Amino acid sequence: xxxxxxIFDIKRYAIHDGPGIRTTVFLKGxxxxxxxxxxxxxxxxxxxxxxxPQKCIGCGHCFDxxxxxxxxxxxxxxxxxxxxxxxxxxxxxxxxxxALEIAGQMVTVDEVMAEMLxxxxxxxxxxxxVTLSGGEPLFQPEFTLALLExxxxxxxxxxxxxxxxxxxxxxxxxxxxxxxxxxxxxxMDSRAHRALTGVPNELIIDNLRRxxxxxxxxxxxxxxIPGRNDGDSHFHAMGEFLSRLENIERVEILGYHRLAExxxxxxxMEYTLKGLRPPPEEALASRRRILLNYDLPTWPQAGGx
Length: 305
What we know:
Layout: E1 4-14, E2 22-27, E3 48-51, H1 61-65, E4 71-74, E5 77-80, H2 90-93, E6 100-103, E7 105-108, H3 109-117, H4 120-126, E8 129-133, H5 141-153, E9 157-162, H6 168-175, E10 180-184, H7 190-197, H8 202-212, E11 218-224, H9 232-242, E12 248-255, H10 261-267, H11 281-292, E13 298-299
Parallel strand pairs: 2-8, 8-9, 9-10, 10-11, 11-12, 12-13
Antiparallel strand pairs: 1-2, 1-7, 3-6, 4-5
Helix pairs in contact: 5-6, 6-8, 9-11
């Protein structure tokens, strides 16, 4: 089992990735290509250079540091030629303003645990713990398993945030050290699912059925993307499927937001949903009502979160 893996962030005091106050560890790499992904820097399993032009102070360090000529001047402005960038990080190391950053660093299990255990007192007092997210944590299955096992040895509550797109034996292997699964369910129709995420959904659906048989609490998370998966018939299909499962503790509908648009620009990636507006609250409420007709524990509950 490897002692190292690649992450791109550790978020302390997280309150939306499971119960209580948590530490969320974001692992790099994902087999899906969701059109609305709010962590585009998580998709690649390799380090990635992030450039924020607004932070650039024009010191010129990156021009000297880059051996490939990826940093150039265009009409007096510093721009990047992404075709020449190999994400070696040489330019970011001396970027005093933080305009250049590397998303993705190799860390050990012990390093992650040391960061995580700094907040043990908050876990105890709030019923929180650690959540492994991404990307897709199961893209690095052995490292994820090692982190979950280490957390359980310390008596820390563990949650796994997953798309479910992984071989069943991988998911089954980590469940032994997982107290809660946050499971993404994006689209019931496989062809539509492929158009939205780049992969079909049969494996995801089958894994959720199998996971339900392991008597572990599951929070299903459904992203609501206007014009893509927000139809009433789709939510009725969701309701029919989920109502046949026994261990669904919560069903959350997560409204699309535009906060990731600038992330794509900084990572040099194309954002195909640019200009799409978030759904109004009534759209979210009406889909919750559909799921309530199937006696599902929708969230947030009436009156707030």
